[in-house]
Specification:
Helix content is 33%, strand content 23%. The strands form three sheets. Strands 1, 2, 3, 4, 7, 8, 10, 11, 13, 14, 15 and 16 form a twelve-stranded mixed beta sheet that branches. The chain has a two-stranded antiparallel sheet with strand order 5-6.
Length: 456
């Protein structure tokens, strides 16, 4: 039986080798940094029936023990935010040097909290049109939630042909924000096919979700309650809007004047808050001042006073559009007019409002899962994912408790179980929407403990 299975897999691998449109390179050095002290692979893999969609990726091998350490596919939200965003601002091995930025070519530093100290991480520019990914045809740029899942699945099947040495590593799928809509159905598909023996794909162990979008209605509807929790709106307004809108702040009835009036009052109170981190300086206000460091075209950089986080993102875009960077990363010439960290294209259709059913089904597996959220995030309040976890009716294995980093409370967590399935839910104290960006050390410690099967 084993001999037949191995022969079948060799046959599939040979077929894929002949049909996959892919190319990959080892990047030895990068502009603004120099020789890299870690192994970085970049490349393209064609997906879809005619492989007209070419997905670009960065693959960073673990700096500890690449052939033994876990392997994580990390997807970025948006939809349309690039792998560049995670690589340089979240959990990748490099960060931008803002202190020495003088308006010319940005420089880079090693990230002391990179997850690649203990993980192999594969970042993908998806959906098509994101980052350096592109389509050979105009029609190929039209995509949606369901197709994105199929594209990533196709990508993984073909990627492992180029990197067979990582098939036995413990494999996890992860992502933040909107990518929750992709991670859960993708995890379900991989698990079902793997168990059925239809697609021998990696050593699948579980998934990680960071401030995930799981249900669009709950994501938006919990914002009012969160705003009240954080004293952004008064008790009186909260009680009034809850009563007048019947607890539904998404499907507003324009004929319900009391509800509409309350909602407008709520919006006026939060409109200048940075919803991604409610204590951070808002770019909405900073943009009204005449102190922006960058012009829209990055042509007239004169000042180096960063007014808000968007200015730091703009430095990254400046670097990513540099011809020397494009050459170093082996970006195919003529495929992108301009790199943007996030490309919210109208060609992408949001056609999956909820993936709660996939999460529910995954509780019947032997996988492990970690869902962590920020306590200062108004964009996707933790109240949404927490209510969904409670609705799963799993056994509470470890009650709500603090977890610590450097002797300080870094957040709170609890564990749930169902037979062989285990779900850890955690809050990162003081974090914004992208917790690994705003609290990098704390999240690194958390993910390292979880992957090591230690308590958070």
């Amino acid at each position: 039986m084993v001999r037949v299975w191995n022969s079948w897999w060799v046959f599939v691998s040979v077929l894929l080798l002949f049909h996959v449109t892919s190319s990959h390179f080892i990047v030895k050095n990068l502009p603004g940094f120099g020789d890299l002290p870690f192994t970085l692979n970049t490349g393209y893999i064609g997906v879809g029936e005619r492989e007209e969609v070419q997905l670009y990726y960065y693959f960073v091998e673990s700096q500890r023990s690449p052939l033994n350490d876990p392997f994580l596919l990390w997807l970025v939200g948006g939809p349309g935010c690039s792998a560049h965003s995670a690589f340089f601002y979240e959990n990748g091995p490099l960060i931008f040097n803002y202190e020495d930025f003088n308006g010319s070519s940005p420089t880079l530093l090693l990230n002391p909290n990179t997850w690649t100290k203990v993980l192999n991480i594969l970042y993908v520019d998806a959906p098509v049109g994101t980052g350096y990914s592109y389509s050979k045809t105009q029609e190929g740029y039209y995509s949606n939630d369901k197709q994105l899942v199929e594209h990533i699945y196709d990508f993984l099947q073909k990627w492992q042909v180029d990197y067979p040495e990582f098939r036995s590593n413990p494999f996890y799928i992860g992502g933040g924000s909107y990518s929750g809509k992709v991670v859960l159905p993708l995890a379900h598909k991989i698990y079902e096919d793997y168990k059925a023996g239809r697609s021998p794909i990696l050593n699948f162990q579980g998934f990680v979700l960071s401030s995930p979008s799981i249900d669009t209605f709950l994501d938006n509807n919990t914002k009012v309650e969160f705003a009240h929790q954080r004293t952004l709106i008064s008790d009186e307004l909260y009680e009034s809007i809850k009563s007048n809108c019947n607890g539904d702040y998404v499907n507003l009835d324009p004929n319900n004047k009391n509800c509409m009036s309350d909602y407008e009052a709520y919006y006026e109170l939060i409109r200048y808050i940075d919803e991604y981190q409610i204590l951070r300086r808002s770019c909405k206000l900073a943009s009204k001042e005449n102190q922006r460091i960058l012009s829209e075209e990055f042509k007239n950089i004169r000042q180096t006073k960063f007014r808000c986080r968007d200015d730091e993102y703009a430095v990254g875009e400046l670097w990513a559009n540099d011809p020397h960077v494009l050459k170093a990363l082996r970006v195919r010439e003529g495929t992108k007019e301009e790199f943007r960290r996030c490309n919210h294209s109208s060609a992408f259709t949001l056609n999956v409002p909820s993936v709660v059913e996939y999460l529910q089904n995954l509780t019947n597996t032997n996988l492990r899962s970690l869902i962590y959220c920020a306590d200062l995030d108004l964009a996707l309040p933790y109240l949404s994912s927490l209510s969904i976890v409670k609705s799963l009716k799993l056994k509470l294995d470890m009650a709500w408790h603090p977890w610590f980093v450097d002797g300080e409370v870094a957040g709170y967590a609890e564990e749930h179980k169902k037979s062989e399935y285990c779900l850890t839910y955690a809050i990162v104290k003081g974090a914004g929407h992208v917790a690994q960006e705003t609290k990098p050390k704390e999240v690194y410690e958390m993910i390292d403990r979880w992957l090591s099967f230690s308590d958070i």
